[in-house]
Amino acid sequence: MTMATRDPRTPWAAKVLAALVVAYALSPIDLIPDFIPVLGHLDDLVLVPLGIWLVLRLIPSEVMADARRQAAVTDRPGKRWQGLVLVVALWAAAAGLIWWWWAAR
To answer: Mind listing the pLDDT tens digit for each residue in 76-86?
Structure first.
């Protein structure tokens, strides 16, 4: 979907909605707080897939076909490893800071 949203033929509404869906999925602020037993996670299980479905419906079929073809031939294993290393390093740094704070108490 990333390649399709960067395509100039994609309508601006699809681009804005894709950004909003990603922001909502990554945001710690929800419409219904997660500490409410069932409803807290139910909004994430409904709104995010519904938003993705709507974005895919707004993107023209020829743009999606081109993006799928481009994704099939693009081989970028280096970026996957870089992202993995970044995430692991951030979690390790957070764990180290928590341990340091806890040990200083």
So the answer is: 665 667 778 88
